[in-house]
Amino acid sequence: MHVLTYLLFPAATSAVILSTKASSNPVLYFLDNNPAGADIVSLKISNENGTLSNPVRTSTRGKGMYGLAAGANGVAAAPVGADTLFVQDSVVVSEDYLFTVNPGSNTVSMFIINRGNPQYPKLLNTVSSMGEFPVAVAYSSSISTACVINGGAVAGVACFSTDRAKGLVPIGTLRPIALSQTTPPIGPPGTVSDLVFNPSSSALVATIKGSPTSPGSIYVYPVLPSCLVSTTPTISKPLTLLLDFSLSFLGSDSKAIITDPVYGAALVTISSTFSVSVTKKIVVPDQKATCWSLYSPRFDTVFLMDGGNTNVTIVNPSTGAIKGQAVQSAAGMGSLDAVMNGEYLYVLKTAPLISVSTDMGGEPREVLSFDLSALGSRQGWTGLAVYPSSA
Asked: Shortest CA distance to 31 belongs to which of 51, 60, 7?
């Protein structure tokens, strides 16, 4: 399992903090998945040069929990050192809503973002995820529905209507997924990975890892004419995809990219009947744990992040050809969740840093490696989202 060892052990480093001039808007968010009490951490983004400053914590009123790495030679499973949820999309921002998970409390939190002061999101409510170890959230503004995927001993997808006054209101019951996992789960193999609505909100898609020798699964839940998410998924198991990780749509319902840390990523096609097939296997040279992906419509480019490599791989979304790399500071050690805000790319690093790069449509260059070690342990940091949400 050498491709995943880069995610399983704590990292420590130091970096120089660069002074920045910050404005009150926009804002970057990530989750500190802390078992003692989870927080959303928000950072000001400078409108002038995209740099970061002033981290602020806001409680989710829930607790975090760390996934476990399987032990070897009689050694017991132990908490992983980074990517403690084994997922993409643990924090989602859309319109003026923010959603996140509390895997140690088996709950989901919904916040409303004050446009005048977005660094201080207001918690609307925290509700049961209907399962155990909730890890990723999806939201559709067109059907006013948020869904969460649970990846523990009680695994499956639950959905909620969203209300500006009431917050999350449960819709129906859990859509179970047979994972045969524990709480917390032992992974990364055999764990859930991502949950996302397609661009038209006609389907909800979940990815689930297999193993390095057997394929994973892609669950597609149609959205019914009633605007409810179906309880009956179409399940695909393309043989090319083994450790199905993140899924990013490429501007349409029929095209997406799925990362696989065994070799890199794959372009996939989703049919009108919601079956998924691989159209292009993308082997990333010298990759170690390519788990996270981001599609930028602005630059019509895919960015692939590797937990064991600090640099970001740049991919043509039409052909799957690798166009190059965005070189980032070696102090970052690896790259996890990422988000675009205008011309700037923000990457959560394996070290306690967030990288800021610009010129992503041309010759990318890193303008800041923002040190967050003063916030304490980096172990539970996960997810990355921006307000106002953009690509």
From this structure: 60
- Two tokens, residue 382: 């996960």
In tens, the pLDDT along 240-299 reads 999 999 999 999 999 999 999 999 999 999 999 999 999 999 999 999 999 999 999 999
Q: Residue 254 has which token pair?
A: 């029929």
Q: Would you say residue 71 has pLDDT above 80?
A: yes
- At a CB cut-off of 8 Å and minimum separation 6, what does 118 contact? 24, 25, 26, 27, 42, 387
314 has which bridge partners?
303, 324
Reading phi first (left if > 0) and then psi (alpha if -120 to 50, else beta), residue 333 is in left
The pLDDT score that the predictor gives to residue 134 is 98
The one-letter amino acid code at 59 reads S
- Average pLDDT for 362-386: 97
The length of the chain in residues reads: 391
Distance CA 178, CA 167 (A): 29
Q: What's at 327, amino acid-wise?
A: V
Contact 145, 99 (CB under 8 A): no
DSSP 152: S
- The conformational region for residue 47 under phi > 0 = left, psi -120 to 50 = alpha, else beta, is alpha
Please tell me the distance from the alpha carbon of residue 245 to that of residue 282, in angstroms, as a whole number: 14
